[in-house]
Amino acid sequence: MVRRDSGRMADQRSMWGERTIVDRIGGAVYDYAVEREWLARPAGLAVWGTDTRVLYDSIRLIGDLPDGSAVLDVPCGGGVALRGLRSHQRVRYVAADISTDMLTRARRRAATLGRYDIEFIEAHIERMPFDDKEFDLCVSFNGLHCLPDPAAAVREIARCLKPGGRLVGDSVVRGAGFRQDVAFRVFRRAGAFGAGGTVEELHRWLTDAGLTVDSLQPSGAVALFTATAAR
Hints:
By secondary structure, this protein is α/β, with parallel strands linked by helices. It has one domain: Vaccinia Virus protein VP39 (Rossmann fold). Helix content is about 40%, strand content about 20%. It has a 7-stranded mixed β-sheet with strand order 3-2-1-4-5-7-6, sandwiched between helices. Strand 2, helix 5 and strand 3 form a beta-alpha-beta unit. Helix 6 packs parallel to helix 8. The two termini are about 20 Å apart.
């Protein structure tokens, strides 16, 4: 069954509209850094105490999917996960985000990669317009900590996974250290982050959504995870 909620999505757009300057400047800076591994690594270490090589290794898992698979990338941001696709890989790839600015960036990224087969969808992550059990893989990089209700988002993602499908992603977490928690509060006050959670809370979001946690690896204040839907 396809689920839609235009009213709630309009409210969420309004929230994003109030944060346009913060999001566009912050999004542009993040987008520039994350696309350049040589720059992302020292920045990630300085701000979050994380080794960003683990992030890029997770993204490369997309290239292991067989042709004919269906992938959901949400929130896709500027399209950093698109780099994981192999040039001749034939999968259905759906990039979803509530920010039209980020979708525009992701479209540009896809074009530079010569991928004109990507589907771009403006969608509220808690009420996505996809059928139950539609995707073999969902990736969610650098997004959960930005959301007002990450647990609800994980439940919605889990709904869209096929039996045995996987969720791969990461989230900035609280409790990794004083310096990182200060940075988290700064981003939250700027309107870029939501309440977030600890590693333990992230684990609970996944299991409460009916997923089996295969790995949950903290790297500084960034926790990378893989989880599988029940068969």
